[in-house]
Amino acid sequence: MVDRKPFEDVYREYLGRVYAYVRAQVTSAADAEDITAQVFMNAYQAYPRFEARNLTPAAWLFRIARNATLDHFRSQGRRDRLRRTIEHQPMAEEDPEGKAEERIQYRALLEQVGKLPERQRDAISLRHSGLSFDEVGKLLKCSEDAAKMLYHRAVKALKEAAAREGV
User: Fold this and answer.
1) Which of 5, 17, 112, 152 has CB 3.0 to 4.6 Å from 161, enough for a Cys bridge?
2) 3-class secondary structure per residue, 99-160
3) Same domain, residue pair 85 and 53
């Protein structure tokens, strides 16, 4: 038997990060809550079989989250990913003009992210959810160096697209 944290500690430590990752993938907060709940139900059931030597708890949970999110999209009939992300709007703040400009830039960025190859999109999303490159690599079934390369190629492509569009 491997010594590990109680599941309740893992839940408290990662709930916010997993929810943020899922929420960035779906347009509905209710869907994000449902998917996050499913992630932690699946994780709770599988936790006795979790072996820390293979994955960190974060990488293990984000693999479950990624799979649950993909399952959600499959069950929704594979809606167009770009449309889902474009419809997602951050909450408005006090400066309407500045916020409008931010939304335009945000939509443009999401549109460009949507055009990236799937593995680059995943690398960006997972890395910005707080995972290390090693954890991203394990989730994407590649080396840490390959995960870094996917991420940096994605960032480079986004910068080039921004330069072309004058953003």
Assistant:
1) 112
2) HHHHHHHHHHHHHHHHHCCHHHHHHHHHHCCCCCHHHHHHHCCCCHHHHHHHHHHHHHHHHH
3) no
Amino acid at 122: D
Domain count, the chain: 2
Per-residue model confidence (pLDDT) at position 36: 93
Tokens, residue 116: 């990236």
- The domain that contains 135 carries what CATH number? 1.10.10.10
Last residue of a domain, one of 79, 101, 118: 79
Model confidence over 67-107: pLDDT tens digits?
A: 998 888 877 765 444 455 555 555 444 566 766 676 677 67
Dmax over CA atoms of the chain, in Å, equals 58
Q: Checking phi first, is residue 93 left (phi over 0); if not, alpha (psi -120 to 50) or beta?
A: beta
How would you write 83-116 as a 3-class SS string?
HHHHHCCCCCCCCHHHHHHHHHHHHHHHHHHHHC
Instruction: Check if the beta carbon of residue 10 is closer than 8 Å to that of residue 57.
Output: yes
